[in-house]
């Protein structure tokens, strides 16, 4: 195995690029912090690589997000993986029989109680893994995806793999500011915040402020923390600049990472396949 398979289907998932991102991290550092956890793809890949090296890269990983039901998923996988495997198996077997009605049932149930297990199901069944919430009332409004979710047997194997990988990691519900304040000299912080040009529909992104993040990165850099930031760079095969301009001197290096086509664009354009909508992320480093 070279790439850790995705547990959640998630917009902006960095699974395909995780190894590239990790390759720019220091060869050895103290602890790892990921304040915008999302699907956890980079963290999982880092943990896998750390477990297969003779000399560990780092000591401990701390992951957080503002979505409590997302963090609950990872803690369930860490402490009670059989619970989520059983739930997925039962619900997805029913889903296969009547996808449209079952999807609406799961989504309505989640919107009424924000159950982490239903949130996991939605990530695997909604359109392109786009977890879209209405700003007015927080209602998860993404339509059903056209794909069949992965089989329970496949999901179960992935849960077992992730359980082994994350059993010594710490997962917390908190803001990115709180998480980054915990990082100490010699630690690495990897930030993968909402894209500033297209992800305002994502839960929590409505209040996200890139300038606040820049200020927090500057604080981390000043006390000797290594910070990496994935953020929007260019689209339309590098013809259109959609990047943000960070404060002068905040980052020492800038790398472009090819991220393929934008799933948000596809949803916002009635699911049509977009031509020449290749997006490149910027990977910015403070050292």
TrEMBL record:
Recorded catalytic activity of this chain's protein: a 2'-deoxyadenosine in DNA + S-adenosyl-L-methionine = an N(6)-methyl-2'-deoxyadenosine in DNA + S-adenosyl-L-homocysteine + H(+)
InterPro entries reported for this sequence: Ade_MeTrfase_dom_2, DNA_methylase_N6_adenine_CS, M_m6A_EcoRV, MeTrfase_D12, SAM-dependent_MTases_sf
This protein's record includes keyword Transmembrane: no
Key words, A-Z: Methyltransferase, S-adenosyl-L-methionine, Transferase
EC number: 2.1.1.72
One term of GO molecular function: sequence-specific DNA binding
An example Gene Ontology biological process: methylation
Coiled coil region boundaries: none
Residues annotated to bind S-adenosyl-L-methionine: 10, 14, 65, 192
UniProt xrefs under PANTHER family: DNA ADENINE METHYLASE
Family named by the database record: Belongs to the N(4)/N(6)-methyltransferase family.
Descriptive protein name: Site-specific DNA-methyltransferase (adenine-specific)
Species, as recorded: [Ruminococcus] lactaris ATCC 29176
């Amino acid at each position: 195995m070279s790439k850790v398979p995705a547990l959640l289907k998630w917009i902006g998932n960095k699974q395909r690029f995780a190894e590239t991102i990790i390759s720019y991290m220091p060869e050895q550092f103290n602890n790892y912090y990921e304040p915008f956890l999302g699907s956890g793809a980079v963290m999982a890949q880092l943990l896998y690589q750390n477990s297969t090296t003779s000399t560990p890269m780092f000591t401990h990983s701390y992951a957080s997000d503002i979505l409590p039901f997302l963090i609950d998923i990872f803690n369930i996988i860490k402490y009670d993986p059989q619970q989520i495997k059983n739930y997925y198996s039962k619900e997805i077997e029913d889903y296969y029989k009547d996808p449209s009605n079952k999807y609406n049932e799961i989504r309505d149930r989640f919107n009424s109680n924000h159950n982490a297990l239903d949130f996991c199901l939605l990530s695997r069944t909604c359109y392109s893994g786009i977890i879209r919430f209405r700003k007015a009332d927080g209602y998860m409004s993404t339509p059903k995806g056209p794909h069949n979710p992965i089989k329970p047997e496949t999901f179960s194997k992935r849960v077992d793999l992730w359980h082994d990988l994350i059993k010594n990691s710490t997962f917390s519900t908190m803001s990115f500011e709180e998480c980054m304040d915990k990082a100490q000299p010699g630690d690495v912080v990897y930030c993968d915040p909402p894209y500033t040009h297209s992800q305002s529909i994502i839960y929590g992104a409505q209040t996200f402020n890139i300038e606040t993040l820049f200020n927090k990165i500057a604080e981390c850099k000043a006390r000797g923390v290594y910070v990496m930031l994935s953020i929007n760079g260019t689209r339309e095969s590098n013809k259109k600049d959609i990047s943000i301009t960070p404060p002068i001197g905040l980052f020492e290096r800038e790398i472009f990472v090819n991220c393929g086509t934008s799933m948000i664009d596809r949803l916002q354009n009635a699911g049509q396949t977009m031509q020449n909508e290749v997006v490149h992320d910027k990977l910015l480093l403070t050292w």
